[in-house]
Amino acid sequence: MNAHAILSNLLLVLFFLHFSPTKSARTILTTGSNGFSLELIHRDSPRSPLYDPSSTSAQQAEQAALRSISRSGYFASGLTATPSSSTNGVAQSPVRPGNGDYLVTFSLGTPSHSYWAILDTGSDLTWTQCRPCDSCTGRILSMFNPLASSTYMNQGCASSACTALPAREKHCNANSVCGFRHTYGDGSSAGGDLASETIWFDAGVKFSNVAFGCVHDERGNLALHQVAGIVGLGGGSLSLISQLGNSVGNKFAYCLVPPTAGSATGKLKFGAAAVFPGSGALKRTPLSRQGEQGTYYVLYLVDISVGSKRLDIESKSSPSIVPMRGSGKGIGPMVIDSGSTLTMLTRAVYAAVEKEVSSAVSFEFAPPPAGYELCYRANPSNLRNFPAITFHFEGADWTVPAWSAFVRAGEGVMCLAIVPTDGVNVFGNVAQQNVYVEYDLGKGMLSFAPTDCTKA
After folding, report:
1. Angle at Cα 219 formed by Cα 215 and Cα 220, nearest 5°?
2. pLDDT digits (tens, 9 = 90+) for 301-345
3. Which one is catalytic: 44, 101, 120, 193?
4. Fewest 10 Å CB contacts: which of 20, 128, 130, 248?
5. What pLDDT, in 10s, does the model give residues 42-85?
6. Alpha carbons 308 and 388: distance in angstroms, whole number
7. Which of helix, strand or coil describes residue 393?
8. What is the DSSP letter of 363?
9. What is the CA radius of gyration of the chain?
């Protein structure tokens, strides 16, 4: 065999190893049990790669508020036919990298390498920075190298995974590889190849042929720093939970620790491992998936109470841009989100809550830091004199105690962890801290109960 023939055969072998135009991203193989759990690290924990020991509580609170407000615009644009805000007429992606509060680690490829990623229930596609990527903000040498993995395969333009991408975000490369580009509200973007790979969790638990995004180009300030990408747990077909599907019973749960827990970690659980660790009864409320790809998890909010006083807010005073089946009574749809720190309410609803909180709290008002609306000159020890806030969802009441309804936003300053928005109602992660939250996608139900998440 001459040299030209050998080279031709070698190129043909490499083509089939690294490019699969029709391979299904739904072929999932697993080793280990039908359930597993991962540690969840708060971004401000000493164990986090984003930890900044010089950052003050005031700085952390301000950044958390601004991240929440930023995400609110993405939910609004993703849940309406006409985005409420955009950049140069480009529809916004529902995810802004770096705008999450909780991190996980996972391993990718064969042989596998471990990476930090942001947990996000508000997006679908799991993606990581890949070599080569001269424009990426992470450390080049620590990025995933697809050429070094024997299980990496590009997805073709006709593959089911490529078909599942939003039309405005995908394109077909010259070599028929499915490409994508997420464009964000500030003009930043991340683009690369849609591929499939083996993802590893815990010891011996792996899932093969999982579709993910291999990012080779970043534009603008994505601010990922030491975090390589995102683990998407939204409700769309490309999300990790949707791809794992029946192998984990279409179920996952998390328990979020507050940043004040120091080095303690929360838990992210899948399948059989998603068992409530407490002794009390779980409350349940219907869960729907909405948006173009069914990405967003939406609950139905009937009313709100401040302390023992129910506010009796009518839906006509709180117009919602989110369509949802039901009687239409009460406040309306509310996105539940792991990546938003603060809870956001449409302005009419927020005004009713703020009025009652102001009447119930006797402490002196304090000038609010950026991103907050209602603050008091108080310390965490004073919260026993502050009211709890109850969100009356369809069929279940979620009471947020004062120590989760208010956050420390500076020395001697406590702020209400609820802010107004011109977008959609969003139930943020501060309200979910020290609560076991279970998503049963098969039954369309969300279950929850208070618990000590450091022991979950």
Report:
1. 135
2. 999 999 999 999 976 544 555 555 555 678 999 999 998 999 999
3. 120
4. 20
5. 988 889 888 888 888 888 888 888 888 877 777 777 775 433 33
6. 8
7. strand
8. S
9. 22
